[in-house]
Amino acid sequence: MTSENFPLGIFPSDMKGLYEYDERYLKLDARHLIYGTKNGTKYLKNATNLELERCTQKNFPRFTEKKFNNSILNNCFCIKNQNVTLNGYWTEQEGQGMSIKYRVCNNETFSSCASKEEINT
After folding, report:
1. What is the C-alpha separation between 89 and 31, in angstroms, rounded?
2. What is the spatial distance between Cα 104 and Cα 99, in angstroms, rounded to a whole number?
3. How far is CA 72 from CA 25, 86, 99, in A?
4. Cβ pair 75, 11 in contact under 8 A
5. Terminal C-alpha separation, the chain
6. Distance, CA of 44 to CA of 103 (rounded, Å)
7. CA 69 to CA 47: how far, in whole Å?
8. Mean pLDDT, to the nearest integer, of 91-98?
9. CB 3.0 to 4.6 Å from 50: which of 20, 30, 42, 75, for a disulfide?
10. Would you say 8 and 1 are in contact if contact means Cβ atoms under 8 Å apart?
């Protein structure tokens, strides 16, 4: 999956589909997962963090600059240097997938996060 054959933009939103993202309060994480099956049970073989960045027109090479700027894509996040392999089905012995998580910022982990008091208000 590359920007050429399958460009991907992640749009963080609330339950109503409205844009909801402030890096001081929320974090967005993406991981590439490789899974297998052992004795009939699925297990995670490997997980690699995928670096995200704000999408630009270069992430969507088939869009003109005007089309990109008139879309919601400039509010999305893209996988930096996108080149991710996804394959298999959950019923197969092995496969590769992706997980995307949207979570509350933890100022003990990230210095750019707001204080717990500010996040909770």
Report:
1. 18
2. 16
3. 21, 25, 22
4. yes
5. 39
6. 21
7. 33
8. 90
9. 30
10. yes
Three-class SS of the chain:
CECCCCCCCECCECCCCCECCCCCCEEEEEEEEEEEEECCEEEEEEEEEECEEECCHHHCCCCCHHHHHCCHHHHCEEECCCECCCECCCCCCCEEEEEEEEEECCCCCCCCCCCHHHHHC
Question: What's the token pair of residue 11?
Answer: 């749009």
- The tokens describing 23, both together, are 């890096």
Contact 35, 43 (CB under 8 A): yes
81: left (phi over 0), alpha (psi -120 to 50) or beta: left
* pLDDT tens-digit map of 101-115: 988 888 777 778 888
pTM comes to 0.80
